[in-house]
Amino acid sequence: MLEWPNLLRELITLFVVIDPIGSLPVFLYATAHVPKELHRSFALRAVLVAGVVLLAFLIGGQFLLESLGLRLGSFQVAGGIVLFLFALSMIFGEPKPTQEIEAAERDHLAGAVFPLAMPSIASPGAMLAIVILTDNHSNPVSDQIITAALLLLVLAVTLALLLMAGKIGRLMGTTGASVISRVMGIILATVAVDATLGGLDALGILNLSPVAQPTLGSG
């Protein structure tokens, strides 16, 4: 059973990689020409599609890797590197909403599935994080169920924010979303380094001693 520090760590990780706040400007853009009475259904559809994709990775992501003969430790290292690069883009590059709104402007298929469900909510970083957090070899099924519950909690928060997007968008503005995205990028960079070190440890390249951490728990 996951302890409270590890529960908090996983919850923060999922919140950062899914980034519900960063999805608000994407939702506002995607629904700009959608009748207001359909906004609720629009948000529900986007979160449902994202949830199905992420749960599919939670259930079958590691099986897919192992069927290809890939070790999870190698995936953790690769995932950590990708997450770190993703975090750098959040910190130094254009914020997530700007990138995805521009993608929607180049493609007339803007809507609940693209770019809101994917890649805004179910981002590549979120898919990678889900597989890393639910290692079948080190985490029992009960812990994976808890991780799935945390994922559903973050998706529920995402849905709640999308349903209040109009009011929140006026309050936060583009600048506020950009600042929050960069702060989350710093947190995600730390998570990525921890995942990379954990992968090297699993491969036997490093021998890391567990370090007690009062807030987020040990890696």
Summarize the structure.
By secondary structure, the chain is mostly helical.
Descriptive keywords:
mainly alpha, single chain, 219 residues, 2% strand, two-stranded parallel ribbon
Commentary on this structure:
The protein is globular, with a radius of gyration of 18 Å. It is 74% helix and 2% strand. It contains nine helices and two strands. It has one domain (4-202). It has 219 residues and is mainly α. Helix 1 crosses helix 8 (141-163) and helix 3 packs across helix 7. Mean pLDDT is 79; it is low at 106-110 and 212-219.
Order of helices and strands: HHHHHEEHHHH
Distance between the termini: 16 Å
Largest β sheet strand count, sense and barrel closure:
2 strands, parallel
As a whole number of angstroms, the C-alpha radius of gyration is 18 Å
Q: Please tell me the overall pLDDT.
A: 79
- Provide the structure class: mainly alpha
Strand content: under 5%
Write out the strand line-up for the largest beta sheet, numbering strands in chain order: 1-2
Indicate how many domains the architecture comprises.
Answer: 1
Outline type: globular
Low-confidence stretches: 106-110, 212-219
Strand count: 2
Summed up, the helix count is 9
